[in-house]
Amino acid sequence: PEIITVQELANRMAERGADVIKQLMRLGVMATINQSIDADTAELVVQEFGHRFKRVSDSDVEIGLEGEVDHDDHLEPRAPVVTVMGHVDHGKTSLLDALRSTDVAAGEAGGITQHIGAYQVKLSTGQKITFLDTPGHEAFTAMRARGAKATDIVVLVVAADDGIMPQTIEAIRHARAANVPMVVAINKIDKPDANPNKVRQALLQHEVIVEELGGEVQAIEVSAKSRVGLDKLEEAILLQAEILELRANPDRDAAGVVIEAKLDRGRGPVATVLVQKGTLKIGDIFVAGGEWGKVRALIDDHGKQRPSAGPSEPVEVLGLTGAPAAGDEFQVVESEVRAREVTAFRQRRTKEQRGVTVARASLEQMFSKI
Ligand code: GDP
Ligand code: MG
Known about the structure:
The protein is α+β, with helices and mostly antiparallel strands. It is 31% helix and 28% strand. It contains nine helices and 21 strands. The strands form six sheets. It has a six-stranded mixed sheet with strand order 7-8-6-9-10-11, sandwiched between helices. It has a six-stranded antiparallel barrel with strand order 13-14-20-17-16-21. The protein is globular, with a radius of gyration of 23 Å. The site of magnesium ion (MG) has 3 residues, from helix 4.
């Protein structure tokens, strides 16, 4: 039985009607703004938007915004999340390694860094920066294609001896399309043929106007190899982060995005997740794409067990039923029953969508033969 109109549902969630219709379409339901939908469908939509849903009676539902929507006074500053992009061999991996070793905690006992797909650097000032450890445009685009926004700032690496190359331009396009601000790292300035000013000039042609040329994009000269300028680059990232006013509510059920996932022989399915809001704790029940789990252990980028992880922190999560995909959103839910419901629905939907694609493909084949 239909119990609520799309418009009313949108109003109660404080979302735009068009977005609710879009979400319904993703769930395979075609509805107009004035049409009514049933409680089951409404519940799924509400869940997808991250709000709380409660059936009050057969004819009424309650959509809980309280405690779910993050009011301004609950928001606290969070660390920026950074992706490094640039042309092959311009030094992305070298720079990520160099930056990783600027972590003050790396020097502490047992502070050996583990490769979990992301790491967080704590500076001597106490400020933190999270780096996604998978350089390259593919990971970035794959995430974006899934609707996940994991990156706050792109660090565009350009080798000072090589200048702007095809993948540099591609990276600029990606950052722009995702509406993510850039900080340029002009790398390899230790090389005798390095020409950082030429890089600054060349960036103009791609409408990247650096500060020295009257623009707003910071360009920092670095050498990943000689470890020059790393502190300046980090300062630039933090300055950019300040402009973005990155904040999140740590006191709510956690939600975020899967950075990578694998099936580990000894430990079972393991996912590295980036917490974007709330705090993920041991014992929490969560869904991630078509999988769910109960957090058995959280392991940070130093290989240390942790009781919880807050906004902008990457952690390995143990306790999943299967491996989700990179870019899948994860969300803590109130019960195992709920987790099973959501994943069963999502798996069914994925299967149906695949079915539709296959059917369409065979139709097209049929017609192409005519
Ligand atoms: P990626 O393909 O962008 O990840 O580039 P890599 O980090 O693998 O670096 C490519 C090559 O450039 C390697 O041989 C690095 O040792 C070298 N390299 C990286 N950064 C620097 C630097 O700052 N100075 C010099 N001289 N070589 C560098
Ligand atoms: Mg590399």
